[in-house]
Specification:
two-stranded antiparallel sheet, 8 strands, STM4215-like, 140 residues, 22% helix, alpha+beta, elongated
């Protein structure tokens, strides 16, 4: 049986490739982003994972991008999301996470990119369904 840590590691491993890491200014993180990061980061975390022979889980892939800096009538504003950059990164991730069948698990995008605000910062959330079949499963 897999743990939530293994589930997140499985998805992170799919994304830790030069095609992805080479286009972001920051890093790929598992479970949490460093509090003071001001770079483009991708965070993979989990919501839930069942314990049956056919394990079902939910994984979040969050794309963090610094806010836009705009000038409104002479006043600086940095609260607007950079949706274009989020979308560009999202398009690189999709072929890696949508309908991907691996040896020990398979995943697909359940909810495509949805922007969310966390404090003054924005990120794009992609929700993934994760399935893993355990051949040597023993329900104790």
């Amino acid at each position: 049986m897999k743990s939530g840590i293994e589930m997140v590691a499985d998805v992170a491993r799919l994304l830790k490739v030069p095609k992805v890491t080479g286009i972001i200014s920051g890093s790929l993180w598992q479970h949490q982003r460093p509090a003071n990061s001001e770079r483009e980061d991708i965070v993979v975390n989990s919501l839930a994972l069942t314990g049956q022979q056919l394990q079902q889980g939910v994984v979040n892939v969050n794309i963090h991008v610094p806010n836009l800096k705009v000038n409104l009538d002479g006043a600086a504003d940095n609260t607007m999301p950079d949706l274009a950059r989020m979308h560009a990164i999202e398009q690189v991730l999709y072929p890696l996470i949508n309908d991907n069948d691996q040896k020990s698990f398979w995943i697909w995008v359940d909810e495509p990119g949805q922007p969310y605000q966390e404090g003054a910062n924005w990120y794009l959330n992609i929700r993934i369904n994760y399935y893993s079949y355990q051949e040597n499963y023993q329900n104790v």
